[in-house]
Amino acid sequence: MADAELQTFTSIMDALVRISSNMKSIERELHCPVCEEMVKQPIVLPCMHSVCVLCAAEVLVQRGYPPPELPPEPNTPTSSPITRSPRQTRRPPPKTDRLDRVIRTVCGTHPGRRRKDTPPVIMLFPCPTCGKDVELGERGLADCLRNLTLERIVERYRHSVSLGSMAVMCQFCKPPQALEATKGCADCRSNFCNECFKLYHPWGTPRAQHEHILPTHSFRPKVLVCVEHEQERLQFYCRSCQCLLCPLCKLRRAHSGHKIMPIALAYQTLKEKITKEMNYILANQESVQAQITQVESGIAQTEVNSTVAKEQLNQCVSELRGVLAERQGALAMFLEGARAQRAGTLNAQLSEKQSLLENAGLLTYTQELLKETDQSCFVQAARVTHSRLVKAIENLQHFSLSADPSFRHFQIDVSRELKALSSMDFIQAPLAPVIDTQKTLAYDQLYLCWRLPQDSAPAWHYSVEYQRKVGGAGALWGRVLSEGSSESNGTHCSWQRLDDVGGTSAVIDKLEMDSVYVLRVRGCNKAGFGEYSEEVYLHTPPAPVLSFCLDSRWGLHAERVALGKGQTYARSVPGMTLLQAADRALTSCHLTSDLLVADVSITQGRHYWACSVEPGSYLVKVGVGIEAKLQEWFHLPQDMASPRYDPDSGHDSGAEDAQDSPPPFCFLTMGMGKILLPKCGVSNTSTGPLTAPLPPRLGLCLDFEKGRLTFYDAHSLRVLWEGSVDCSAPVCPAFCFIGGGALQLQELIANRSTEQNPPRRVTIQTRATDAGH
């Protein structure tokens, strides 16, 4: 029996200790971020963080805002003025204390102002949790609701930590005979023992319906009420504004069109979400523990790596000091040599000047020389003396120091070095490269071009990563997504990588046709890899790329059409024919077109090619046709102004040909920055032709077996128009100029000369640096 009682007592104590331990673990969550103590009368800021109302008022006063009326500390049994026993004298139930009146003043009411008063100051509260200035609005703390839930949690925490050691005394017993309170009344806002509670709450009276709670030192309102309409309960939740509303606030224009739900539904929804989230975390405690271990390992590695970095810093500074001392010695020696040389020169000049003084060497010698009477001997000896005297007189008349004593050329300009030393910092990894979407394209291969931001550290080499996207990429082709691949609807294959890429461009080959690829790049230097660039989505051509050159074997008019180097560029300039036809321009316009064809013919399969038409071109036709029919059309030019002439339909008149037979050629007409989309196109449901902006690059895909020619915007591979063409004979790409214009065939990426710097190899030390990449 004693063992059973001991076991029961032990289990009860273990449960109490476990509850106390669990409650103690949340103590950090109950601290005010301002005073770093347990929160008292917390209010909810607009950023959804909670602080003590007294701390919030103090911070606002320190910021220069008008001081609000501060609430007092919560009443306690020792500070409450109501200490008389109800057995001596009956008294009405205790009234609301000053705390709630002040709380309503600070957090729920705001006096009106006259029309001529100055506009209220919008208060900004610096939230210490999120580190931002939160706008409180015109009424300041009056717009902030009390966090009653947090108050209840704090109260339960205090009870669990104390484990019954701090008793709450009855407020209506005599002090000598005061009993421990067993109940608290939320309506009377006082603590009672059993006898006093029965005395003040007689059976059968309205007071018997009061809500009784556990004894407490701080009473709170039973429900939250609107800060603007004090008698209205908060019964709705606005999902758009993320705030609670009363029935009157719901009718305001500010919430018109917002998603508003009843508070019960919001309560149930949010409670279910939090329960699921909590259960998920509880179910992944092993992952949490593994991450804790990883963080602890990261902390240890941080200490080790910081020590290594500090040693490297000291070594670098010591090397700088050694180089500086060595350079100082070399410059000092050079300066000493210049000083000795100049001092010797000036001393020689000084001796020479001193010899010119009276009774000095030169003048005394000259006086003795003048005493010589032998003429031949005098002339022989006087020649040298005469030269010295002439030189002395010249120096006397034009005196200057023989050496510069200022040493102004020996001043050292260390401004650049000081600037470099002052800006000396730890090396940073390169910033995220910026992909050049104008130069990046997908043709026979993928060509990716990028650059580093101006304020980025240099990169020694780059790493290019790409992966094939499967499905759901139609809306993402050819554009950059700053959110990354996590926002896309499709799935991806594994990432493939090109390492040690030198320069700022890369070519990727061996890709699948008609597929979308995601590409990104990042730089690397001694500090390691930097951030990834924004991901770019590129769509590969729908068929193998056809490589060809322009051919003029059918009679090129040299005065009007000129081919560029490599015969991939052509320009047409109106010549004398147009000038001579100006006389009959009012009656008719007989212009001959200039036709250029490819030097290859297509007899089977699917093929894709692209070209660019100059936006300032007058009229340019791009398409395909049967080689024989094109030659016939070229040698028998039609009247361009005739209504029977329609090269886009493939023939001159529809009366001669059968309705079901496809035309021998198919063209799209473009010019003056526009492209004409004929009727009966797949992207045109109207009864007549439409015009669309001319894309920078035009793509064409010919399916020889099906006799279909599809025109694309080559940048995004968006279908512009699709037409039929007779493929019973060899078909070749063709281009026609009417008036001035120019076009450029898309160059194969494989033929480009990618001049890249040789990759710089770098070995990144990985010792004690496994925490990050």
UniProtKB/TrEMBL annotation:
Domain Fibronectin type-III per the UniProt entry, residue ranges: 429-543
InterPro entries: B30.2/SPRY_sf, ConA-like_dom_sf, COS_domain, E3_ligase_FN3/SPRY, FN3_dom, FN3_sf, Ig-like_fold, Znf_B-box
Name this polypeptide is given: Tripartite motif containing 46a
Record carries keyword Lipid biosynthesis: no
Pfam families: zf-B_box (PF00643), zf-C3HC4 (PF00097)
Keywords noted in UniProt: Coiled coil, Cytoplasm, Metal-binding, Zinc, Zinc-finger
Region spans: Disordered: 66-99
CDD domains: FN3
GO terms, biological process: anterograde synaptic vesicle transport; axonogenesis; microtubule bundle formation; neuron migration
Domain B box-type, first and last residues per copy: 221-263
GO cellular component: axon cytoplasm; main axon
Record-annotated membrane-spanning stretches: none
PROSITE patterns per record: COS, FN3, ZF_BBOX, ZF_RING_1
Subcellular location: Cytoplasm
Domain COS per the UniProt entry, residue ranges: 370-427
Record organism: Cyprinus carpio carpio
GO MF assignments: zinc ion binding
